[in-house]
Amino acid sequence: MSDNHRAGLHDRLRAVRTVVDGVRVVTVHGEIDHDGKDILVQALLSADGTPTLQRIVADLSDVTFMDSSGVNAFVTVYQQVSADHGWLRIAGAQESVLRVLQIVGIDALIPCLPTIEDALSA
Question: What is the rounded end-to-end Cα distance, in angstroms, of the chain?
């Protein structure tokens, strides 16, 4: 792993970026809500809003809550990365977060895998 970077700090949300074999892995901790969605998008994309790496895994194993703001953030990032012929995968979502992703159909758009290893090798 390289390129450790704390992408954002918020009262209820923290995102840390690393790069594994050319794939940006964003490990998210806490709650993804309206106040923290910009931290998530910033961690997934570069500062100017374009993907710096076309392959991204969002590790949600430490996310305890996500509302529609998180869903919108993932759709935005997915659209930008896909337009650049890349991909976005979600790994390790806890049951409550995975349920939100499934209810709105994000799991049909963005692969939701049980582990980071699964997401990296899919």
Answer: 19
